[in-house]
Each structure stands twice: as structure tokens, then as C-alpha cells.
Amino acid sequence: MDLSKVKLVATDMDGTLLNSKGEVSDRFFELFEELKNLGVLFVAASGRQYYSIVEKLKPIKDEIYVIAENGALTMKQDQELQIKEIHRDVYVDLIETVKKIENTQVIFCGRKRGYIENYGQDFVNFFSEFYDRYEIVDNLSQVINDQCLKIAICNQQGAEKNIYPSVKHLENKLKVKVSGEVWLDLSHNLADKGNALSQIQEKYNISSEETMAFGDYNNDLEMLQKATYSFAMKNAHKNVKEIANYITKSNDDNGVEYMLEKMIAAKKRRV
User: Fold this and answer.
1) Could you tell me the pLDDT band of residue 4, with boundaries at 50, 70 and 90?
2) For residue 62, how many C-alpha atoms fall within 13 Å in the half-sphere facing its CB?
3) What PANTHER family does UniProt report for this protein, alphabetically (predicted)?
4) Residues 113 and 236 in one domain
5) Could you point out which of 6, 29, 188, 212 has its C-alpha 20 to 30 Å from the C-alpha of 197?
């Protein structure tokens, strides 16, 4: 494993770069400065809303690429680089279908903000960790002044068991991703972190052999396939561990930082 070759690092946020409290470590920001000095590009790739990602990474937000909403949106310094939206005729039917799934909450993930119906304050408190900008509306189907990047569905008893069987049939026309223990996301069929990462790799002529990526859940699979140095977190879903080439420590044990330190040391030795 010759980590000195790495020119681009892409990492998921929740369950990966963020600890269980949703925090980024101070050590990461120190390591980022070293990455920058070594000319290594950094990409934050998450199912989160763009505004939520840059809030977590505020000190470096103007120096990084951000892949948001599972690859539906790519941004750099508030500049929109690519977007994959679900058209209105599709998402209106979709919303009405998924609302029928018991014990779930549905989020319209717009370009401007996230939208929810009135599910109560407890859900707002939970949901607002992932959505920095949001609005409570009477009916999601009536949201017309925004682009739909994703439909997110939450079930606190587990997304894989309680949501996925009801939407599996949509996989022939949409990207259906269990993106966390309680989350399932429906996106444009070309919206994934791998496709979004490929565009950045092509822009800088960076190969998979020069790419390091980290992830923990099914919405990270395509991104990990774009990196020779693909790492599943110790706390990752079994599907991620099966596809990744390597495994690192858990998010609570700073598994991303652990491997970044090794990569930085390898590049310095090479110099």
C-alpha cells in the first residue's frame, strides 16, 4: 500500500469523519492543513444537505469540494458544479407513495432548503442536525419553488427493514439507498457519490490509484469503487466492508485521521 501516491481524499461525514456526537475532531483540521500543503485535494461527500456539511467544516469550507445529497449536488466555494434533480412529475407521485409507509417521516431535500410536514418538535430536533436550512410546510407535494435533489425517508425502527421493502421496486428508475440506520434516500438514477467524484477526478486528471476514500454505509459504495485506497470504517455496514479494499478504525476512534496521518507521513518520506 503506497499511500505516497494519493492526490485526492474523499470522505463521507456521518459515521465516518464525524464522531457519534456529530463532531469533527480538531486533529482533522490540523491534518487538512498538511494535506493542502502537500497539494492533496479534499472532498466531503455526504447524504447531508450542502449547508449542513459546510457548517460542520466551516473553517475550510472555501478550500474543499462538497458532494451533497448523495451526489445530487457538487459545490466549490458556493459555485454549483453539477446538479441532478428529480423532476416534479416524478417526485409528486413519489411523495404520495412513500407517505403511506407506516411510522415514517418524509423530507423533500431541495436545493434551497429541506422541507418537512409537521411531524412534531421531537422530529424537528432530530432532523435539524442534518438540515441547516429547512421549512415546515402543510403538504410536501405543493413545494414548487425549489428543485428536488432527493427524497429522504426516516424510520426510527430501522430503514433497511421498515422502508426498503416498500421502495425496492423503484430501483429500475431511481437510486434507492439505505444511507444510515434510520435513513433511506431516493434520488435521480445518476445521482451518487461515485459519479460526482469521477467528475472531480477527471477535472484534475487524478486516477483511482491516486484516490483515497472513506465510508460507512450503502450510499458510499459507488464512491469507494472509484478509489484504490478505499477504506471501510470499523463501524461500517457489512456491504461496505465487503467492497472496500481496507478497513480502518471506527469513527469514534478517528479512523479517517489515523489513515490520513499514515498517508501524510508516506508522502513526506517520498519527498
Assistant:
1) very high
2) 1
3) HAD SUPERFAMILY HYDROLASE-LIKE, TYPE 3, PHOSPHOSERINE PHOSPHATASE
4) no
5) 29
Give the whole-angstrom CA distance, residue 257 versus residue 245.
18
**In terms of Cα–Cα distance, which of 108, 149, 133, 151 is closest to 51?**
133
Cell of 105: 417521516
Q: What SS3 state is found at 26?
A: helix
Contact by Cβ (8 Å): 99, 116 = no
| Same domain as 97, residue 158 | yes
Q: Which residue, chain included where needed, has cell 500543503?
A: 37
Look up the pTM and report it.
0.94
Residues 183 and 243 in one domain: no
Closest Cα to residue 12, out of 2, 29, 24? Answer: 24
CB 52, CB 76: distance < 8 Å: no
Domain coverage including residue 205: 3-83+192-270
* pLDDT over 70 (residue 271): no
- 20-47 pLDDT per residue, tens: 999 999 999 999 999 999 999 999 999 9
Pair (175, 219) in one structural domain:
no
Q: To the nearest whole number, what is the mean pLDDT of the chain?
A: 95
CATH number at 16 reads 3.40.50.1000
Count of structural domains within the chain: 2
Rounded Cα–Cα distance for residues 226 and 55 (Å):
26
Identify the three-state secondary structure at position 94. helix
Q: How many CA atoms lie within 13 A of 261 on its CB side?
A: 10
